[in-house]
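[agent] plan:
  1. take the single chain provided in the ticket
  2. run structure prediction with default settings
  3. attach structure tokens to the ticket
  4. add a short note for the reviewer (M.T.)
[agent] executing step 1
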Amino acid sequence: MGRFELNSDSEKQHEVLTERAIEEPPRYRVLLHNDDYTTMDFVVHILETVFHKSPSEAISIMLNVHQTGVGVCGSYPPEIAETKIEITHNMAREAGFPLKASMERE
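[agent] step 2 finished; step 3 output follows
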């Protein structure tokens, strides 16, 4: 009987580990912030190339950034969100723009 209990406990541990292993990581919204210098065309370019938005989606998000001061580019796991922000900042700096991106937990 002791052996049966050991297997039962072992199976329960495996179930718990399996449930934890498939939990999705938290997601983060990546935000673009409006400024007085970055061109609308460059923001659209970032949205199309970094965030893989269609031209119409990119224009819509860009207009939202322009009109409200901030726009959501997408929702990603934290490492991907951080990478997209870094790429955005690097591309903006190389182009001479002060475009800022940030992330917030959903």
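[agent] step 4 note for reviewer: DSSP finds four helices and three strands in the chain.
[agent] ticket updated
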